[in-house]
Amino acid sequence: MEQWMDVTANNLANVSTTGFKRDTLAFNDTLEQQLAANSGQGKPIGSVGYGPAAAGQYTSFEAGSINQTGRSLDVALNDPNTMFSVATPGGTRYTRDGAFQISQAGQLVNNSGDAVLDSSGQPITLSPNAKIKIDPTGAITADDKVVGTLGIYTGSFIKEGQNLYTSSNAAPSTGATVTPGALEGSNVNAVSSMVELITLNRQFELAQKSIQQQDDLSQRLIQSLNQ
Asked: Distance between CA 158 and CA 20 in Å, rounded?
């Protein structure tokens, strides 16, 4: 439950993060014991679990809402299974955050200053004074001259942090489209996440009280046996 609260709290903290994808936990029984009659020697009568354990953390790639901004360098991906590629100090990474800008070196970068890569995996160089336009196919024009195309990739993506993802099988996407002058919002529902967090906190408190009561009963039993 503590892990579940951490995941939910992180989702809620990123409700306004551009292109953020919410996480969720999957659970299964820690240990399941088969029960049988006659002290375990007779007919099977069922099973009992020893409590849940987190089996894994998963990311929901459900698309967020598309919000118009009017900025020529803002781009939102229309396909929920695609990502932009960026060059980071740790290597190529992927992101849904299309809030781009032009660096002092004249490169198209994200908010962290990582160079946005084109369809051939190279940084995109633009003139700060040029009139930039990005069309629905991802093609970038500067003063009506095509200077590159945004690299859009599809594959299996694993969340790394800082709104970035890694992938071992990312490949260029064919036919992917974007919405220029817009950004994709987070796919976190603030109201449901808030309710979930409150519910988890209450359940955590009840579980904690239950453990304290069990500990108190065990202590009383030990004391009675010592008398």
From this structure: 13
Q: Residue range 176-193: average pLDDT?
A: 95
Strand extents, DSSP E, 30-144: 32-36, 44-49, 52-59, 66-68, 75-77, 82-88, 91-95, 101-102, 108-109, 115-116, 132-134, 139-142
- Say what the pLDDT of residue 225 is: 80
Rounded to 10°, the helix 190-226/2-13 angle is: 160
Question: How far is Cα 64 from Cα 184, in angstroms, rounded to an integer?
Answer: 6
**pTM here?**
0.78
**Mean pLDDT score of the chain, rounded to an integer?**
88
DSSP β-bridge partners for residue 166: 158
Percent with pLDDT over 70 in the chain: 88
* CB 124 within 8 Å of CB 116: yes
Instruction: For residue 202, give the H/E element and its range.
Output: helix 190-226
Using DSSP, how many helices (H) and how many strands (E) does the chain show?
3, 20
206 contacts: CB under 8 Å, gap ≥ 6: none
The whole-angstrom separation of Cα 121 and Cα 87 is 9
Per-residue pLDDT tens for 193-203?
Answer: 999 989 988 88
